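hey m, so remember when u said the tokens were messed up on ur end? i reran from scratch. heres the input so u can diff it against urs
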Amino acid sequence: MGMKKLMLTLPAVLCTVALAAQDIPRDELFRQRDPSGGMMSIIAMAVVFSALVLIFFVLKGFGLLMIRREEGKKAKAEAAVAAEAPAVNPKRKPALQKMEEEIAAAALALKMFQEEQHIKESTVITINRASRVYSPWSSKIHGIAPTPTKN
């Protein structure tokens, strides 16, 4: 089988060498080998398709890398929060617990009050009228070409 393949390709190589010796331009040589352009089309589509597949795998790998990086950051942040969080003491004084609840309620009320003020501010629209309405930037007369005159 290998010898038969070699026999089939050997005439093609000899033909190429003979045509190259006659100083035939490469585009003419290609046109003689592939007159309909089918092989060129197949090669072009294969190159584009392989480039798209390569880009797909590069982007997929980059996405997985970023996901792993974010998961690592989350795990570190959770570990830091767990290390900093105070241990829950069931023997805590009820007065201290009540004071913490009051502080949390006051903080929530302040936050809600600030958000409410911000919402009211954002709905106010101020329009300042210009004292001079005319501006050469808005004048259309400067964009019109002069009327041609007949001589």
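this time it looks ok to me. The chain has a mean pLDDT of 76. if urs says something different then somethings off w ur setup not the seq
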